[in-house]
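Figure S7 source data.
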Amino acid sequence: MYLYRLNSTLNSFLLVTVLFLFSSCRNSQEHKNLSQTLPEIDKKNAFALIEEIVAIGPRPSHSQNAAHTANYIARKCEEFGYQPKLDTWIEKTADGTKTFRNVYTEVNGNGDKFIILGSHYDTKMIPSVPDFAGANDSGSSTALVLEIMRVLNKSPWTGPTIRFAFFDGEEAIHSYTDNDGLHGSKKMAKDLKESGEYLNCKAMILLDMIGDADLTITLSPDDSNSLIQHVLRIAEQQNRRDYFSFFLHGVIIDDHVPFKLIGIPALNIIDFKYGPNNSYWHTSLDTIDKLSPDSLEIVGNIVLQLLFEL
Ligand SMILES: [Zn+2]
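Tokens for the predicted zinc ion complex:
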């Protein structure tokens, strides 16, 4: 994940736009019949999944550990009653030719449209931190998508079809360019575009860095306004609105961007305030002791409701 700084004029414009949309869109959307009792996140189980992912070790793309992680995710999918698909491909990158692996699977629901819920699973290659744990980035979101899948498959699902996507190659080696970073999400978006399936994709929801014990979700004003309104409304209903704020210091480049570029409404649910001045991000301090099962529960239950209502 990367931050692109905006100039202050654009910042003010975005802030004004967001405030306007807040005042005009509230309650404008029809709610679905919420007769299904939604399952709830088991925060202990979600946290145990992070422990297992972190135990694999650093998992930069093209490493043996990245392959192990892809296999681990596929095994968990099977354990939770899903049929995983492994998409493996080779790409020329800014850092040489590399093998990447996306894992994805689906739960069938109502209608002919689908939603993507995604997380990356690779970790940033940081030469000065050879044992980089990546507990929050990307252990937390990978674990939470798996836990959402687990609870969602315990009873018949009456929401929309959901594709659960685990992306490789989110992290850039040098800086985000056409051949550096977002490899997995770019590949999936390209395939959806080529097959025409993107026309049936209603929304892309991305989770990233959502395990911080000091949870502060920083939504991007440049993401889909209707998805922003929707997630905030649910947060309010669940008395969790205080955990949400806006990131007004620039544009966040993350795995939702390739989907936005092909016209799919997208939302990045990310906590980009990780430690004092974001100092735990991409450092040796991104360890599991900074995370809390409660944060996984808060975000997970909001996302479950969002998936159901979309
Ligand atoms: Zn990262």
